[in-house]
Amino acid sequence: MKLIPDSAVRPSYSRRVDFVGDRLNADYSLSCLQCGAQMSIAAQQFIERWWGKWEKDFNSEEVAALLENFDVSTTSGKSHDGGLPVFLRAACQACQADHIVYAGVQETSTSYYAVWVHGVAMAIA
Ligand SMILES: [Zn+2]
What we know:
Elements: E1 2-5, E2 19-21, E3 27-31, E4 38-42, H1 44-48, H2 60-69, E5 84-91, E6 98-109, E7 112-124
Antiparallel strand pairs: 1-7, 2-7, 3-4, 5-6, 6-7
The structure holds zinc ion.
């Protein structure tokens, strides 16, 4: 899997939080890196795939490529905000281009979450 990163959304240790709450009724919006069409991802998906559940959506080679491309430490396993990384796959409705969104998720108190979106890339098989 080859990743073409969106230079506008890069991992940062000082990024402001994108979503907070116990149930996230919000969407993360992005523009398709191939055709520019608007895409949106339900923010709740980041929480649903937290704690390693996202790994089911990728093979082990892809998992390694994601961690490397988005500069996630395999030693600490932590996302840039200090939480745990989540990677989501999303296809553009207009041109079907495959995209990856990298977020860090923390449970800041019981069942209350904070989500930082650290990276977006287009994935080419
Ligand atoms: Zn597209």
